[in-house]
């Protein structure tokens, strides 16, 4: 077991996050947000602001910093602030005040007088359903509606009508904010024509590229540094507003600029998870065999229509075997803050609906819900030929049922004093993906090695993974490997997102390491080198000759007078995609206690058993899965953005946007079944960042039903949902 | 106004506006960046430091009102030796991104020193969005267990 390598820096306060940088001469920027949800800024009176103490500059759409819309392959276009006067949501950045101190910038920003031409905002998903638009194709290119019908079946309606048992229900999920503990922030420094930006982000090279595009500077002039990121969860995939503004203002003023969003600003000026409505219909034989599945989804989306939470495509498309399936995705554009990727985008809210519906079907059939899931387990996504590369979901359920005491569960739950106790379960799935990544592996003359990539470790443990896979590939102890990341000057590691970093960077290491070893052997046997002309091989950090002689790689390098040698390896998704379907799997179990009188819901036990391929570093992997599961508790019982009719966020701070605190969380049991998936990538790991959250909200709602007999089809579940009429 | 602060055993003199918080004085004037700003409103605990040995929220404390010595997460370790609570956070993997960690550790030190009856309740003023909560409790228990066995 290897500890998280950056823990010593983090527990002593020595890890410097973006806003912990204080270069000499630095000044402070403060972002100004719109106070209406829809309309146009007609004027901004900044006279008082300019006269305020310490103020150096005020930027508005009328006196703006020039910024161009950047594009990247993963995030698409990123919105840049202050380029026009349109207001599409309340809390949209419309100004930036820079002053000598933080307090001066903040106080001066409160003096900005804004005039608007207001228009009536659309803010209610429910009201907008009737006017919903078809969603654009999903990320894998599938159209908004996918239909799979058995031959001879005319329509999904026919298939449902012919099903002996049918359940139909509509589920809703609340919009959410990532609420990473580190607010989006940046420190920007221009020095001799080069910009260095310290800003927490999920990929330093992508951030550098987007800043270069936004500022119309060559990529070589922008350096993004973020070895520590204070939580991301999808919310730091795009370059943030403070990063754009700090960079542009620093160039304009010739001084380093620090800018951070306040916690309240983070809720609207970054990204959020969309609200969803999902209508499900399941048709089954009396023995539980699914014969028809219909899953219609609606997602809120900002007026830019930039991001849709794809719930049916992310779940029902693949999870169960069924001869007849129709899924659809629509979107409802609203005057709401931007939506974006958030931990298990699509799968998290989608699994609440699908896995609740499966539980409802089990109740209707009088069948054990695990048995029902086993019976309909898919070998391949419906209508596709490509089978799952490695699927051990039944084993996850078997281990889980045993560990959790599932056989003790009774219909109607049990009573413990004033508490009604129920058990619930759900399936978790998350696709196994890879992004292109490059890693440099260096052998040094002092017998150490370095593994370096620009990717980010926002708490995932990637830093330790680099050292472990590096050590494995070089056949040396991990202590001799220095991992480096979070710097755009390093080979492009891409985005830490989609649970891909281990598989992507790990595969690249496994390309780079043999290359650098080959170079070492060539050097070792070259004329004048210690093994001149000999047949050599490599093991255990040493070059070995057939005659029994051996030297460490450091000794070889010193002998040939080289301080180091390096190779860069790259990997990307390849032909495996045409041979199999890839996903991780898991079985979620929850026990809840609902108070008989107050209807308070407490989660008292949780277990997740996961089939995520090979686990590289158990403790951080366990922690990350546990964190994901707790996010599921949060979604089920705590968090949801409450957007009022005028577009104001009613609970945009940590006092009123509820996320679990320590006392809300019981012990969480995380188990793995480990089947390395080398059909997917040479490392055999499929990633654990997101699957932990998937299914948990449904498992909790199902447990609440078991305890109380009340089926709640919305999250977060509130006390009101459990009061008797 | 001119004030003087005792930070991790060092005397610091500085000139601040009356409205400057202890958190901003530490982070922006003294380059003591272990304490973090997660909310600036007393709602997250990321800024927790000790003043006169008691945990306080540095974002809700005006720098000019501080008379007693201040200890931040930087002041816990002696040389290369981690404070037992810091070591327990490493051992129990009680952090992921680490942004809440300095505040968690300052509260955890107080939990150990005060021998609080309910660790989960006591630690509930420190949010952790990475949700390392069970491991944070395990870290406090590790230190308390070690104390008990002495
Ligand atoms: S920053 Fe002080 S409590 Fe959040
Ligand atoms: S470790 Fe990330 S917020 Fe606690």
TrEMBL record, chain A:
Record InterPro entries: Ald_Oxase/Xan_DH_a/b, Ald_Oxase/Xan_DH_a/b_sf, Ald_Oxase/xanthine_DH-like, AldOxase/xan_DH_MoCoBD1, AldOxase/xan_DH_MoCoBD2, AldOxase/xan_DH_Mopterin-bd_sf
Q: Which residues form a coiled coil?
A: none
Q: Which SUPFAM superfamilies match?
A: CO dehydrogenase molybdoprotein N-domain-like, Molybdenum cofactor-binding domain
* Matching Gene3D superfamilies: Aldehyde oxidase/xanthine dehydrogenase, a/b hammerhead (3.90.1170.50), Aldehyde oxidase/xanthine dehydrogenase, molybdopterin binding domain (3.30.365.10)
The answer to keyword Transmembrane helix applying to this record is no
What molecular functions are annotated in GO for this chain?
Answer: iron ion binding; oxidoreductase activity
Give every Aldehyde oxidase/xanthine dehydrogenase a/b hammerhead domain span. 12-120
| Keyword vocabulary terms for this entry | Molybdenum, Oxidoreductase
> What's the protein called, per UniProt?
Xanthine dehydrogenase family protein molybdopterin-binding subunit
TrEMBL record, chain B:
Family matches, as Gene3D superfamilies: 3.10.20.30, [2Fe-2S]-binding domain
Q: Which Pfam families match?
A: Fer2 (PF00111), Fer2_2 (PF01799)
Residue ranges of every copy of the 2Fe-2S ferredoxin-type domain listed in the record: 1-76
Q: Which UniProt keywords apply?
A: 2Fe-2S, Iron, Iron-sulfur, Metal-binding, Oxidoreductase
Q: Which PROSITE patterns match?
A: 2FE2S_FER_1, 2FE2S_FER_2
Q: Pathway it acts in?
A: Alkaloid degradation; nicotine degradation
Q: Which InterPro entries match?
A: 2Fe-2S-bd (IPR002888), 2Fe-2S-bd_dom_sf (IPR036884), 2Fe-2S_ferredoxin-like_sf (IPR036010), 2Fe-2S_ferredoxin-type (IPR001041), 2Fe2S_fd_BS (IPR006058), Aldehyde_Oxdr_Iron-Sulfur (IPR052914), Beta-grasp_dom_sf (IPR012675)
Does this entry carry the keyword Oxidoreductase?
A: yes
**One function term, GO molecular function aspect:** 2 iron, 2 sulfur cluster binding
Record protein name field: (2Fe-2S)-binding protein
Source species taxonomy? Bacteria, Bacillati, Actinomycetota, Actinomycetes, Pseudonocardiales
């Amino acid at each position: 077991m290897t500890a998280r390598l950056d823990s010593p820096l983090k527990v002593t306060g020595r890890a410097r996050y973006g806003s912990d940088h204080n270069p000499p001469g630095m000044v402070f920027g403060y972002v100004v947000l719109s106070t209406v949800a829809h309309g146009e800024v007609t004027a901004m009176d900044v006279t008082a602001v300019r006269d305020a103490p310490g103020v150096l500059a005020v930027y508005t759409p009328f006196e703006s910093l020039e910024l161009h819309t950047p594009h990247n392959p993963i995030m698409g276009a990123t919105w840049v602030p202050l380029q026009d006067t349109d207001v599409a949501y309340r809390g949209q950045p419309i100004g930036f005040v820079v002053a000598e101190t933080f307090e001066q910038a903040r106080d001066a920003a409160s003096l900005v007088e804004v005039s608007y031409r207001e228009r009536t905002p659309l803010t209610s998903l429910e009201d907008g359903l009737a006017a919903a638009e078809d969603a654009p194709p999903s990320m894998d290119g599938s159209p908004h509606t996918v239909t799979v019908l058995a031959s001879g079946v005319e329509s999904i309606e026919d298939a449902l009508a012919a099903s002996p048992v049918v359940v139909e229900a509509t589920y809703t999920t609340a919009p959410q904010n990532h609420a990473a503990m580190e607010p989006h922030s940046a420190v920007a420094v221009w020095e001799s024509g080069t910009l260095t930006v310290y800003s927490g982000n999920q990929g330093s090279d992508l951030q550098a590229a987007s800043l270069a595009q936004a500022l119309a500077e060559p990529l070589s002039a922008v350096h993004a540094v973020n070895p520590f990121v204070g939580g991301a969860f999808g919310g730091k995939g795009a370059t943030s507003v403070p990063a754009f503004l700090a960079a542009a203002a620093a160039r304009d003023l010739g001084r380093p600029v620090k800018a951070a969003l306040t916690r309240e600003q983070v809720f609207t000026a970054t990204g959020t998870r969309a609200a969803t409505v999902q209508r499900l219909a399941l048709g089954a034989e009396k023995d539980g065999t699914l014969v028809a599945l219909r899953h219609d989804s609606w997602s809120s989306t900002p007026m830019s229509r930039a991001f849709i939470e794809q719930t049916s495509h992310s779940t029902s498309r693949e999870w169960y075997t069924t001869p007849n399936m129709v899924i659809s995705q629509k979107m409802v554009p609203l005057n709401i803050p931007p939506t974006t990727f958030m931990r298990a985008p699509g799968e998290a809210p989608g699994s609440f609906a699908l896995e609740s519906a499966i539980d409802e079907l089990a109740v209707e059939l009088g069948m054990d819900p695990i048995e029902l899931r086993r019976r309909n387990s898919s070998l391949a996504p419906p209508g596709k030929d490509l089978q799952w590369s490695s699927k051990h979901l039944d084993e996850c359920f078997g281990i889980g049922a045993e560990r959790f005491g599932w056989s003790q569960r009774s219909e109607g739950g049990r009573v413990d004093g004033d508490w009604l106790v129920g058990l619930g379960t759900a399936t978790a799935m998350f696709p196994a993906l890879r992004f292109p990544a490059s890693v440099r592996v260096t052998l040094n003359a002092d017998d150490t090695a370095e593994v370096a990539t620009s990717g980010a470790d926002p708490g995932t443990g990637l830093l330790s993974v680099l050292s472990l896979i590096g050590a494995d590939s070089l056949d040396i102890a991990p202590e001799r490997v220095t991992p480096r990341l979070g710097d755009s000057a390093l080979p492009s590691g891409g985005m830490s997102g989609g649970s891909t970093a281990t598989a992507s960077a790990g595969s690249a290491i496994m390309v780079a390491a043999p290359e650098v070893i080959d170079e070492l052997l060539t050097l070792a046997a070259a004329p004048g080198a210690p093994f001149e002309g000999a047949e050599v091989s490599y093991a255990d950090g040493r070059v070995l000759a057939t005659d029994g002689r051996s030297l460490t790689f450091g000794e070889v390098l010193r002998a040939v007078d080289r301080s180091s040698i390096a190779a860069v390896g790259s990997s990307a998704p390849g032909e495996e995609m045409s041979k199999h379907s890839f996903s991780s799997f898991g079985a979620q179990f929850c026990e809840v206690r609902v108070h008989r009188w107050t209807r308070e819901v407490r989660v008292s036990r949780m277990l997740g058993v996961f089939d995520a391929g090979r686990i590289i570093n158990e403790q951080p992997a366990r922690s990350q899965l546990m964190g994901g599961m707790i996010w599921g508790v949060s979604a089920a019982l705590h968090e949801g953005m409450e957007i009022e009719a005028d577009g104001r966020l009613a609970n945009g701070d940590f006092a009123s946007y509820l996320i679990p605190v320590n006392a809300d969380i019981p012990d969480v049991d995380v188990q793995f079944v480990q089947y390395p998936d080398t059909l997917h990538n040479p490392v055999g790991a499929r990633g654990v960042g997101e699957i932990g959250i998937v299914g948990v909200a449904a498992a909790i709602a199902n447990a609440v039903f078991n305890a109380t007999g009340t089926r709640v089809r919305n999250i977060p579940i509130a006390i009101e949902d459990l009061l008797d009429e | 106004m001119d004030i003087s602060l005792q930070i991790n055993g060092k005397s610091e003199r500085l000139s601040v506006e009356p409205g400057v918080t202890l958190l901003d004085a530490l982070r922006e004037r003294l380059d003591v960046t272990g304490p973090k700003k997660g909310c600036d409103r007393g709602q997250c605990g990321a800024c927790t430091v000790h003043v006169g040995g008691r945990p306080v929220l540095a974002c809700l404390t005006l720098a000019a009102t501080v008379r007693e010595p201040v200890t931040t997460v930087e002041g816990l370790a002696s040389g290369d030796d981690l404070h037992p609570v810091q070591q327990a956070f490493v051992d129990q993997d009680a952090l992921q991104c680490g942004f809440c960690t300095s505040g968690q550790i300052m509260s955890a030190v107080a939990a150990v020193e005060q021998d609080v009856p309910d660790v989960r309740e006591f630690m509930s003023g420190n949010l952790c969005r990475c949700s390392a909560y069970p491991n944070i409790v395990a870290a406090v228990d590790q230190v308390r267990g070690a104390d008990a066995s002495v």
